[in-house]
Amino acid sequence: MRLRISDIARELSFTSPDLITRRMGEAMYHLLREKIAGLAPDEVLTLDFEGIQVIDTSFIDEFIVKLAYDSRGRTHPFYVKLSNITDIMQVNIDSVFSSHAQYTAGSFAVLTDRLMPNNSYYLGRLTPNERDVINYLSVNKSAHVSEIADFLSRSTLETAEIVESLAGLRLIRQSGEPGAALITPL
Amino acid sequence: MNAIYKNAVVLPNNCKDLYSFEEVLSRTVSLADVRPDALDLSRISFIEPYSMLNLLLIGRNYLRATGDRLALINMPLTVHQYLARMDFLKKGVFTVPEPLDEELFLKRSSFSKTVIEITDIPNKERESLQAISAVVALFRTRANHILKYWIANSIVDYFVTVISEICQNIFEHSLDSGYCAMQTYASGSEHIVRLAIVDSGIGIRESFARNKEIEFESTAKLIEQALMTPISSKRPFGYGLCQVNTLMEKLKGSIFIRSENASIAVMYNRKHERKPYTFMRNDLAAFPGTQLSISLSG
Known about the structure:
By secondary structure, chain A is of the alpha/beta class. In chain A, 47% of the residues lie in helices and 18% in strands. Chain B starts with 7 loop residues before the first strand and ends with a strand.
């Protein structure tokens, strides 16, 4: 499902190219949750920011961060991808996600539809191995854990854990048994 | 006519920059005890946005403390014109015994494009959000003129973020209302764009008093911590000031924050050994609230 954020904003009478403040983020989040009620399990939700110039950190915290956490839900998991984001959005999103990662002492990232300044297709903070897997899959499209293990020079067991972590963050798909799963990017 | 004001405080000509304005603040902190009848601006030759907004706070604090409005007297014509143009005199904080002749008002059409007039930032969330949206929208319409000496396309978006982040801090943390203004002006051979956002609320130290996990040596150190790390007084972590700092580093600008008796200045335009010049003080005159200036020079 691809949703244009500017259309949703307009429904809430937000006509500015700037989506700022917590209140705006909250309102957008609640309306978007209604719209994605029919999302199929494991479907990719693409948030298209065309027509939007700025989203500030408060908005990001109330909107994208909440959706990222929702996407990891056990009952109705989905994937989130960001599209048409501006330079300032990248800077602001990256800061918010990095803070979350720092606070939770873990990884926190969301996929993007184009290469970011970090030379990867995501924004946020991942471990170097997690980043390498994302980059490997963006080139190779699909791989088994053993192939990724060769690329990382890690054991299959260690690699399976990295892959499991990325799957939990909803950044990759994996099908089949852990350890022998086929890994595909979104 | 001004002879009736026998107990006026004469302000020094120290409204040209953030640092010299401290002299004005130190002379006016005890106004409510002295009970002057006017502020004499005869010596003022220029007022930049940060000084202007703080002058407004001085008047508002006096009004709140005494119930009386101070008169502004002996204003030089250019200062009077500027204050009128920036809507300073419409805020109902001061009286002006000698109003400006309408013919002498600065034309809004020619001067408008390089300024954002003084805007109230209320302390109630709903009204505050409307005010912030209005400031941002106005900034967008004038940004090409305000930032005409800075050519990067993304700079407008950066400033939208900065305005939003700082103004939200007023209703989120200060527990008071505040003011916002912006202007591009020339200082010698330099062009300066300055965004000033001020309030007279509880201040940064008091705001963080509820968060017992954050330890600090001094108020200036606490402000530095809030600038450099994502800490928050209300949530497990925050972004506002920290994000403003990140953006100013990218733009090679400077940040000045004053709260109570402390201040910090971080200048990314004057780096030394890859670190910005940073100045901290904890010995300033006690002035309530938080006052912030963001500047680019070029």
